[in-house]
Amino acid sequence: MDAKREVKIIPLASSKGTEKLCELCQREARLQCGKCQVTYYCDAEHQQADWVGIHERICQLLIPIRTPTLLSLKQAGRIEMQLKKLCPQSAQVELIEICRLVAQSKLSERKHLEALPAAQFCLRCSTDVYGPSTVQLVPPYLLLAEANMGLGNLPLVTELLSQAEWAVLKSPECGHAVHHRLHRSLGRLHTATGNLEAALVNFGNDIFFASEEYGLDSTVTCGGYFLMADVFAKQGKLPIVRSLYSQVAHTWHRHLTKLLKTHVQYIQNPNMLLQASYDKAQRVEVDEMLRTMLEFEQNGSRKDSTQIALVAHCLAMLWFLAGDSVKALGFGSTALQASQLIPNHDLTEPIQCLLQLVPGLRTDPHPGSD
Fold first, then answer.
1. Per residue in 186-231, pLDDT tens?
2. What residues pair up with 11 in beta bridges, in sequence order?
3. What are the residue ranges spanned by the domains of the chain?
4. Keyword annotations for this protein (predicted)?
5. pLDDT over threshold 50, residue 144
6. Between residues 261 and 362, which one has the greater pLDDT?
7. DSSP codes, 221-247
8. Which of 12, 17, 212, 296 has a CA positioned 20 to 30 A from the CA of residue 287?
9. How far apart are CA 7 and CA 35, in angstroms?
10. In this structure, is the dihedral angle defined by the CA atoms of residues 156, 160, 163 and 169, taken in order, positive or negative?
């Protein structure tokens, strides 16, 4: 049964002095969630958007937080001690983490509109727990900014990132990871608005802070190189683009090769512990990046067979690990054809070994895949 039929909504009886506000837009509410009965909406469209976006995941978790008892305690100024008893901070922190993960997953799948409710609630709950203008608000600010960036709402993105910058400036002790994510978002905003030099500066800072946090050879760090390459492509500096793409491809190739080795060892020894590789949202993001690099080489005037083989092999490994034999075979064949154009290419044998594994894929999905 789909989400529309599962959720129940009921009209909200108006009561003077106790006006309820819509969960999404903060306008006057006319509907109430029929399950938790503590969440309100201006219309069925906003109710459905919130249900799909996040409410289905947290509906029952909201009941102890939004009960009239807590509201009355808050109004009476006696919330601090009682809140810890009736609704411990850990419950709100759990809600923040759930919303953050849901929003990030939807953003990875490019579902920007569906990500908004989770990101909005994450910010609202983080403000309640940590207070305004604190560094803990930066992650939800960035999630909201990315969602609105995908929807083309650049003025709001600018405002959200300004709030995030201010919170970081007030917290000089905040870590490299926060700086990395902030500069990456700022770089994306400047790219979208055409301020390419500012974008390059921010992506440079992104790479620096990401390398400090995760290492220079990390797949997180190389995401900054990929975004920087996009800026250079807009400037027509194709040799730099090609160089950056090569660095990204080599990083991902090393990472996926390690995952593949672990996967093959698991097939040979099913009793060993196998960690999940990538969920659906992460695969969408990595697949999009690798396909962009592959198309750049295939459509360019100077086709680099070595780079084509490298990137196509990455895509073949990615989809082999996801259990998709059709895509694994398709990209594996592309990789093999490119590698065979170069005598004694060191990727030919690994690509052939992968293609030999593909027909033996299990019919059940790989752990961590959908």
1. 999 999 999 999 999 999 999 999 999 999 999 999 999 999 999 9
2. 31
3. 1-83, 256-370
4. Metal-binding, Zinc, Zinc-finger
5. yes
6. 261
7. HHHHHHHHHHHHHHTT-HHHHHHHHHH
8. 212
9. 7
10. negative
